[in-house]
Amino acid sequence: MGRDVPALVFTREDRRRYRIKMQECLEAFAQMLRESRFETERPQVGLEIELNLVDDRGEPAMRNSDALEAIADPAWSTELGRFNLEINIPPRQLTAGGPDAWETEIRAALNHAEDRAASVGAHLIMVGTLPTLRQSDVGEAALSENPRYRLLNDQVFAARGEDLHIEVDGVDRLRTYADTITPEAACTSTQFHLQVAPEEFPDYWNAAQAIAGVQVALAANSPFLLGKELWHESRIPLFEQATDTRPQEIKAQGVRPRVWFGERWINSVFDLFEENLRYFPALLPLCDEQDPAETLDRGDIPELGELTLHNGTIYRWNRPVYAVAHDKPHVRVENRVLPAGPTVADTLANGAFYYGLTRALVEEERPVWSRMSFSVAEDNLHTAARHGIEAHLYWPGVGEVTVPELVLRRLLPLAHRGLELSGMDSAWREPLLGIIEQRCVTGRNGAVWQKEMFHHIDAGARPGRHEALRRMTQQYMDYMHLNAPVHTWPVD
Fold first, then answer.
1. Secondary structure class of 45 (helix, strand, coil)
2. 109 and 89 Cβ atoms separated by less than 8 Å
3. How far is Cα 112 from Cα 116, in angstroms, rounded to an integer?
């Protein structure tokens, strides 16, 4: 979840002090790694879900402040756009209470929020990009009231020096310019967190990078953006472009983007935080009072505020996270590639596949990242975003293969094995991974259903493109509330 910041103007002195403090934080982090000061006894998993707000007609509802006040739960927060909210599900051990307990908890939280939001004329929808969004919905007026977002917006454009150019080719073509970062708010995601011991972090991060394309292909749920039918997971190219601080000349010089897959497999979690300082100037140079070296010297745990704030403005698809909980520091992988939705059942199936598969890949004698180039893993991500479950991806030992064949023959058995190693018995695994299996058997995920339903409506009554998207969105919400996995949704 985003850290709140005050509204202010930064000076050169602010940036100089922040650079010094970030280096001090990095040195403290290195010392903590050397001295093994991290929590490793009770590793936990976590989940964040970003949602859209719509009115009774399925159109965007710019009511997140009102909805947040009505929900009155600290687990909920605003996001970038006035039509966004985010929930942070409390962390837990993977097998605590079984998957049914986690599903019950998540559905109860979402249902409560839906009831409260409805009292102010808004409804929640879990979807990667809201199909009914129009260009007029992502202007400056749609930016959330939290000063963090205004400040972030100003800093992105100060660095860039010109309007954003958003360009995506799919079934249709999207060409547009934006004078705010609000188009990023169209990207609503599911973020899985996995706490690991620091010495295990590089293997889990490498594994997550290797499977990012497969994850996106299976769970694609963003085929429509600003009225255009684009990629199966249009959220990926949109997010990469909507926060880009580089004008064309800087891109041509090879400067790295802030939405970043990375460029190499890693050997330490330190590598990623060190890259952050080496490659990316600060967007929000806000200094804390805490001295990390003094804090360590007296035996306490530093918050490393500058390091974590800077890390929060670099949008890796798998992000390293340092945090302190109950006076104990830990590191975790934040998996950010997946769209929101369509249902809680689908979300937990995606989580089971991710947690199980990464565990199994880490346990392999010859890791997959030793047999696959990093650039191929990145290519897989973009191929999957473009073509969804219909994509052909590269995997070591099999070459180019369809996603359903790769998952059914190779990866699903590994995911079962990984969950078994994590202590999840077959009675828990089968329902969750069975959803992934049936998506592959039927070739149907959220993006496929949205595209088919839109064309079914459009070809029937021919109500016009936006009206067809609106009706499709309303039907989507009806099925979402039933919590039946998306591969079972009819098109009629």
1. strand
2. yes
3. 6
Are 224 and 469 spatial neighbours (Cβ–Cβ below 8 Å)? yes
Q: Is 191 helix (H, G, I), strand (E, B) or coil?
A: strand
| Per-residue pLDDT reduced to its tens digit, 329-354 | 999 999 999 999 999 999 999 999 99
d(CA 309, CA 276): 11
Give 260's strand partners.
Answer: 316
Beta bridge mates, 48: 88, 191
Cis peptide before 342 (omega within 30 of 0): yes
Bridge partners of residue 358, in order along the sequence: none
Which has the closest alpha carbon to 316: 236, 374, 260?
Answer: 260
pLDDT digits (tens, 9 = 90+) for 423-463: 999 999 999 999 999 999 999 999 999 999 999 999 988 89
264 closest CA partner among 177, 373, 412:
373
Pair of tokens at residue 420: 């078994």
Alpha-carbon distance 116 to 55, whole Å? 13
Query: Dihedral through CA 16, CA 263, CA 199, CA 96, nearest 10?
Result: 100
C-alpha dist (Å) from residue 379 to 204, 224, 237: 20, 22, 13
C-beta neighbour count of 457 within 10 angstroms:
19
Helix (H), strand (E), coil (C) string for 95-110: CCCHHHHHHHHHHHHH
Helices (H), 172-298: 201-219, 235-242, 248-252, 269-279, 292-297
Q: For residue 170, which of 381, 451, 377, 466 has the smallest C-alpha distance?
A: 451
Rounded CA separation 397/150 (Å): 48
First CA to last CA across the chain, in angstroms? 38
485 vs 348: CA distance, rounded Å: 10
In sign, the C-alpha dihedral spanning 231, 263, 357, 410 is: positive
pLDDT of the residue at 1: 42
pTM over 0.85: yes
Where does 61-107 show beta strands of DSSP type E? 76-78, 84-92
Which residue, among 48, 80, 83, has the nearest Cα to 66 in the 3D structure? 83
pLDDT-based confidence at residue 4 (cuts at 50, 70, 90): low
Query: What pLDDT, in 10s, does the model give residues 129-171?
Result: 999 999 999 999 999 988 888 888 998 998 889 999 999 999 9
Distance between CA 267 and CA 62 in Å, rounded? 44
Distance CA 203, CA 366 (A): 12
* Contacts (Cβ under 8 Å, ≥6 apart) of 83: 52, 53, 54, 60, 61, 62, 63, 64, 130, 133, 137, 142, 185
Lowest mean pLDDT among 35-44, 124-133, 241-250, 402-411: 35-44
